[in-house]
Amino acid sequence: MARKTAYIFTFLLVFVVCLPRIQSAGFPCAPSQFTCANQRCIQEKWRCDDMNDCGDGSDEKGCSPMTCNTANDFTCNNGRCIRKSWKCDQVDDCDDNSDEIGCPTRASASCPPDHFTCANEQCKPLSFRCDGEDDCLDGSDEQHCSNSCSSNQFRCDNGRCVSLDFRCDQEDDCNDLSDERGCVNKTCSPSEFTCSLSGRCIPARYRCDGRNDCMDGSDEKQCQNDNDLRA
After folding, report:
1. What CA–CA distance (Å, rounded) separates 6 from 3?
2. CATH of domain 147-181
3. Taking the model in full, what pTM does it have?
4. What keywords were assigned to this record (predicted)?
């Protein structure tokens, strides 16, 4: 019995291995199969399914144009059917880009009134316009800028425009300290050091620590012995 089973198994194995060679030698495919031009046999249902199952495209030749379901599908220029929801999704689902032709750009959806529309269709706050920073990442928010800043901005000595809220906030927003000049200095506590230009208060331990904490370098000037100054 075991010998008979082994014989049957060997026969089936040889049949499966040799079948493609037999078919390629000119033997007909099964009735439920389609014979490709390269003599390969594929399932008949794979015929005209918009997929190159034969490997030589012969299973897709002479096919009638596919009729898409107009209620749910979009018909591509190449006859392929895709879901309507895939139309204008910024992905070439048709493989000929016909599902992305004539689509409205995101720029057509205007930004809020207090925002600026970048060339790459991003929306940025109007305060970012002409502030010396490439907030759009394409430079469009810094193009066609005049030398004058808007009414809600402060013009730095370097020509940069920053929000008026940044004026005298003890931060160098202009990158030249001009937004911190002429500010009314507040009185720092005994445990703090008063920066020269901005009047900013920093912890006294930051004095002569090798770091420019004042942004104007005044906390690192006239330093003698670090250990004596920090004591």
Report:
1. 5
2. 4.10.400.10
3. 0.29
4. Disulfide bond, Glycoprotein, Membrane, Receptor, Repeat, Signal, Transmembrane, Transmembrane helix
Q: Please check whether residue 81 is in contact with residue 68, taking contact to mean a CB–CB distance below 8 angstroms.
A: yes
Q: What pLDDT was estimated at residue 21?
A: 46
Distance of CA 50 to the CA centre of its chain: 32
Q: What does each C-alpha distance from 71 to 8, 85, 93, 111 come to in angstroms?
A: 53, 11, 18, 33
Whether 135 shows a pLDDT value over 70: the answer reads yes
Identify the sign of the CA torsion 189, 192, 194, 198: negative
Share of the chain above pLDDT 90, in %: 3
Domain ranges (residues) in the chain: 105-145, 147-181, 185-220
Compare 116 and 22 and report the one with higher pLDDT: 116
Alpha-carbon Rg of the chain, whole angstroms?
Answer: 37
Q: Selecting from 3.40.50.300, 2.60.40.10, 3.40.50.970, 4.10.400.10, what CATH number does the domain 185-220 have?
A: 4.10.400.10
Q: What is the pLDDT of residue 60?
A: 84
Average pLDDT over residues 215-224: 84
What sign for the dihedral angle of Cα 61, 65, 69, 73?
positive
Q: What distances in angstroms separate CA 3 from CA 8, 15, 16, 34, 211, one per listed residue?
A: 9, 18, 20, 37, 88
Cβ 93 vs Cβ 86: under 8 Å = yes
**H or E element, residue 228:** helix 226-230
